[in-house]
Amino acid sequence: MIADVKVGARYELNIDAITSEGAGVGRLKGGQVVFVHRTAPGDRVFVEITSVHRRWSRARLLELLKPGPDRRDPLCPHYKWCGGCTVEHLIYPAQLAMKGKLVTDALNRIGKRDLLPEPGLNPSPRETRYRNRVTLTLVRTMAGEVTAGFHRLESSGSILDVDGRCLLPEEPIATVWDGLRKGWGRAAHRLPAGPRLRLTLRSVENGDVLLLIEGGETRGDPEALISKVLGLHSIWHRKAGSFDVPCFVAGESRLTEVWYGQEVEVRPTGFLQVNREAAGLLHDHVIKVAGEVRGKRVVDAYCGFGALGRRLALDGAVVVGIEADAEAVRMSMEGRGSSFQVLQGRVEDLLPRTFPTDIVILNPPRIGVGAGVMEGLARARPGRIIYVSCDPATLARDVRRLGYAYRVSRIEVFDLFPQTAHVETVLTLEAI
Question: Which of 135, 146, 250, 361 has the fewest beta carbons closer than 10 A?
Fold first, then answer.
């Protein structure tokens, strides 16, 4: 435990940096690290310690004594207490610079790589109203009071009531969310019964919105909601904690849109990037760094619905996709050509069957690739590896596991999540 630092103690701090969680970093006179949300590099702040750990502490901001050069007034009326965004108090260029630094710092510290190329910083075409999917939590009290929104900042057990003024979702979702809040009735009786529900809204380009309700044993009154809420296209339901396919309960079951020039069916649990415009820029970059692929063998690991694999096959490559999710595999099989094959299963199990290959694309979930994947690639030595990552720490860990058979030739940061500390990275690695 840090000596002489106690919960409730108050200090003045200079904020020097910002973490991957979006908290500012300051140090007490003895060198002890303190993390403070809603602070920015260059700030001079007055804080109160809220928790003390062995090597660091957390504090809450009491007063901004002197603002840093990159601070701004937050855009959203919910921002002060909401955990949905973490860096909205930074001007947008500073958010981009922060994310580039998070990536290179992780590659230096965890990946043990130096002499890295300067990262390219690719802003989101939209700084706000960019999410085509949001998940909110609804809680009911015994007295029938309803709170629905995001978790409070640094209080994951508490929900902050959030309306459509939130600046994360696309406009159609914000409109439908306000309509739901008005239309679900007293104690939200038109939704399934239960103390806690998880509500996910997904929008498509034409403005239609799908609602997935998780939790509760009954259907509620979905037909009434469809009739009352303009723009609500369909309602689906499944029990809390279940991995079963959701049940369609009201509206129109089929919803489609075009992604990367390909029509896909939008399902309640199918994965599509939340920022459609920024995701398009990332997709085009991956195609570009893959280079001339005609006649080459390409592996698209963690391929999702196969957008990259199908595009590369059209460009003349022989592509093998690997995906564990059965729904995504079904989507990937629709409209594919003979040069694009999809294997269902875990990448760590199936990747060795695809060797030898010229190019490997990795696009894993936040936890990074499975055990043995990077070591297998180091042995197989494809000429190029393109790693699409949504977490700098697991990206750096996996690069370290690859060893030094590859050099990092290019780093591109894509801001798919403005106002948050989340960052998407495309790392290009060339065999040495």
Answer: 135
